[in-house]
Every structure is written in structure tokens, then in C-alpha cells.
Specification:
By secondary structure, the chain is of the alpha/beta class. It contains 10 helices and 10 strands. Bound molecules: NADP nicotinamide-adenine-dinucleotide phosphate. Pfam families: Aldo_ket_red.
Length: 326
Amino acid sequence: MDLSSSFHHIPLNDGNSIPVIGLGTYSEPYLTPKGACEKAVKFALDVGYRHIDGAFVYKNEHEVGKAIREKIAEGKLRREDIFYCGKLWVTHLLPKMVYPGLERTLKTLQLDYVDLFIIEMPIAFKPGDDPYPKDENGKYIYHSVDLCATWEALEACKDAGLVKSIGVSNFNRRQLELILSKPGLKYKPVSNQVECHPYFAQPKLLKFCQQHDIVIVAYSPLGTSRNPLWVNVATPALLEDSLLNSLGKKYNKTAAQIVLRFNVQRGVVVIPKSFNPERIQENFQIFDFCISEEDMKAIEALNKNIRFVELLMWSDHPEYPFHDEY
Ligand SMILES: NC(=O)c1ccc[n+]([C@@H]2O[C@H](COP(=O)([O-])OP(=O)(O)OC[C@H]3O[C@@H](n4cnc5c(N)ncnc54)[C@H](OP(=O)(O)O)[C@@H]3O)[C@@H](O)[C@H]2O)c1
């Protein structure tokens, strides 16, 4: 794979392609000033990012849309230069809710289509507008859906031209196999967005996905923001790892650049989140060096099976994906 160009794309199984690095946009809404996401997306597009990862439930998708539309209006970019990935939330997994879920994203972005739309998680919640429905005892209200029927509704959205490619997120092997073996499957998922970094390198899921032409998109590729509300902070901090820092010195790069390059070099797309201009730029500067085979092996050996994003509050959901080995 030629990774010398920062505009490198990985082909998808439906004939489209995905830029190997995207800007993640999840930022705790209560900690993030209004407009910060818009500024970050604009800065990233100026730096050269062409892929933005977002979601309606991040509560800043309107800022992402504004940034994209303004850059297009400035004449700097065309819509087709930009790759936006949006997500279908767990309250919209009933087939009849899929189109409204996508429409909500398109209206929020004020765009005509998204490049990739993915099922955010395989665990259905009570359908409706409340993204986190709970009963009077404060317990999440789950729902049951046939994920294959959800998938068929997504296929129809692709046929209608509202989304170029369709994929999944947080699916384990069994859940991927369910879709792949669906009778009459029209489109395979192009990608599976999952946590992936040197402490959680996902070798088995990566191999399975590669065998089926499904691209792995690595979320939390830098080891998350370590917010104790949703991150298991009893775990060691990835970017403080001594090997990653010594490799940083060796290659004259930062530990963040080493972990991003590591994934990109093994065919994994990365979507690091930063709303800080220096770090947005830093995370993009991973195309002017190459990690040696020996050092790639040493980074692989760091795999500790440490999942930072466990989503344990939903571990009693029948479709909770992380009970399986992979
Ligand atoms: N599908 C899913 O279920 C799912 C789950 C989680 C995340 N995601 C997606 O994946 C994206 C990335 O994951 P993430 O946000 O969890 O974590 P991440 O990208 O691994 O880490 C983000 C954190 O690292 C900091 N950071 C960024 N660049 C840095 C650098 N060069 N050096 C040191 N620190 C740096 C950021 O702070 P600053 O902003 O201050 O730089 C932020 O606190 C999300 O934004 C979202 O788009 C998807």
C-alpha cells in the first residue's frame, strides 16, 4: 500500500473509497464551547483532512454541516472531495425508523447525502426521539429488532442515493456474520467502526474483516479522552506508554503519531478526535515516515486486550457485542 500521500484512500467493497484518516468529532457537550466543533472541522479541512466522522447523538452535527457547507461555499472544496460518516442511533433500528434517522442527519447537516452511514451499535433501544429512554427506575428501556431487517432498510437508503456506502459499528463477528449470511443480501457492510489501538489491536476481528473485504475504522485510536463517565480509567493511558514514546523519539514523531501510523500502515482507518489546532495538524502528519516491520511487531506485542470503551451500562442487553471474544 502506498501511504506516501496524505490523500490516500482505501477502496471499499462497493466501489467507493474511504480516506485513511478522518477527524473524530465526539466531544462531551457540557464541556465543549459552542462553535468549537465547527472551528475544528474547518481547520481540519484546511489542513488536508477529507474525512469527518460524526453522529446525530454527538449534538454537534449541525456544526459539522455548517463547516463543510462554508468550505464548499468558499470555493476551496467540492462536496465530492469530502467524506462524511454519520450514524444511525440505537432508537432508530426498526426498519421504518431507518430512513427518518438518516433524514434527521441530512437535515441537521443540510446536505443531500452522506458518504457513509453506519449502525452505531447493534443494541436496539425503545424507538423514539429520546436517545436514552429509561423507565421510572432509571433503567434503560431496550427493544428487540431483527438487525437483518434494519440492514435491508439501509440498503434501500443507498438505492435512493441518500448515502453512498453503508456499514456498521461495534459489531462482533457473530453480528457481522448475521448480516453477511442474510438471504438476498444486496450490499455487504463496507466497514465496521470499532475501538482499535495498540492496547486493543483487534487482531482476530481485523483478520475476519479483511477476509470479507470489510474495512476496520478505528475509533478512540489515541486511547480516548479518558473521561471517567464513559471510559475505564483504571486502565493505563495509551499515549504514556514507554515503548510508544521511545519509538516517537526514534522516528522524530509523537506517541500519537506513532499509534495513528501503526493502524494506517496495517490498513486500518483512523479517526482521531481533536478540537485543538496544533493537535489536529500533528495527527495528520503521519504520511512522511514509515514504521519498520520490526517496530510494527513490537507495537503489536503491546496488545493487552484493554478496552477503554466498555459500555458496561448496556452489558445486560441481549445484543451487547462485547461478551464474545471478538
Ligand atoms: N462508533 C462508536 O461507538 C464510537 C465510540 C467512540 C468514538 N467514536 C468516534 O471516534 C472518534 C475518536 O475517538 P475518541 O474521541 O474516543 O478518542 P481519541 O481520538 O482516541 O482521543 C481523543 C482525545 O485525545 C486528545 N488528543 C487528540 N490529539 C492528541 C495528540 N496528538 N496528543 C495528545 N492528545 C490528543 C483529544 O483532546 P483535544 O481535542 O484537546 O486535542 C481528546 O481528549 C470520536 O470523536 C468519534 O467520532 C465512535
